[in-house]
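Known limitations

Structure tokens in this collection are predictions and should be treated as such. Users comparing against experimental data should check residue numbering before alignment. To illustrate the layout, the record for Putative biotin--[acetyl-CoA-carboxylase] ligase is reproduced below. The input appears on top and the generated tokens appear beneath it.
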Amino acid sequence: MGMVDTAATQAAVTHTATTATRTTATHTATTHTAAAARNSNSNTNSNINNETDTATTATTANTATTANTANTATAAHKLTDTVSSWGSWIRGERRPGSTLLDAGNRGMVVPVKAPRLTRTRQLISRVFTRARVASTQREARRLVREGELNNELQRITQFPAAALIRPVAVVAADVEHDARGRFNRRWFSMPSSSLTFTLVATAPREAMNHKDFTGWVNVLSCIAVIDAIHEAAPADLDSKLTFAWPNDILCDGMRLGSVNVSYTSLPNDEQHAAVLITFGLNLAMPASCLPTPNATSLSMHVPDMPSADTLRDMITASVVAALPLQVSGLAAQHDAHQQATVLRVRESLSRHARSRHFQLNDGSSVDGTIVDFNIDASVTIRTSAGDRRLHPSDVGVTAQCIDVVLA
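Generated tokens:
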């Protein structure tokens, strides 16, 4: 989101045009007297938009009485999008509608444009890119429900499964203005600086009825995006990138992004359902724009990083190619493959073993330290009352299975 999972974040940006003030100045001068005057334009602002006004200039004369009039030219450029000191208003220090030019003139103008995803289009037949959208996950669900993907879904599901989950489409956006994660927490993204996309795949309903499957899809999605970052980033991040159970990606112990998995029914298909796997990463956000103190951005750890648009495509394409193989490999080589993955996750979790606060589905919470990662994708946490297990489904990971009943 890039994505940061936080309730304090507001990522809604609006398009409004402002009108420049036209100022007329009249100056009178006498012989051998120089008169100079300057008129200042008034700055107007909308929600998060800014138009620039040109300054009014006045000419002076050294001769007999002269009157010169200077008019301000209006330069009302309608910007694609504007962002006003992202970090400060996200943290509640400024309202989104406050003046762009206040706080030391730190307002930024950021264009919003749909991602290109050239590599990704070579791997999957349907790629939907949007400049802005409320949520790529909700947009993906809409495409499934309204039949936009019927041809692809029918073609995939009528043949024996070559993979347990099979990619159908990618829905990506430059900006999500109302994306939600676990427990309806808001995800935040910034134009030209975040990776936000949803992978639409199919899976047998029978598999979805097992907590192991739903838990592992979430874990393997996190692993897939970590591997994709390793491939795309021209830097050694082995000691920095880690998985934070149940769905976060950390870099140097700071939150770099998150993964969110949900499910929806397929039209006229009772044997399969759609798996909607949403990814959010902070790629090129400045430190001042990060929404929470424990958030980070990839550009802060990778010198000479490729452009955010290039990274988006590289990471998305890598996830699309690798994730189905990882999930299928787990099912086909259940013991060996799963044990290797368990060991990898355990090692990752051990790097940041600390007491954490876990919110539970029933509204309660528990504090504890993760001491083990188990074969069913659950964790064992050590609390003041003793050890207990938590499954991803206990902490909101599959809470968004809106219209698929999971056993």
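For this record: The chain is about 25% helix and 25% strand. The longest strand covers residues 269-282. Please report discrepancies through the issue tracker.
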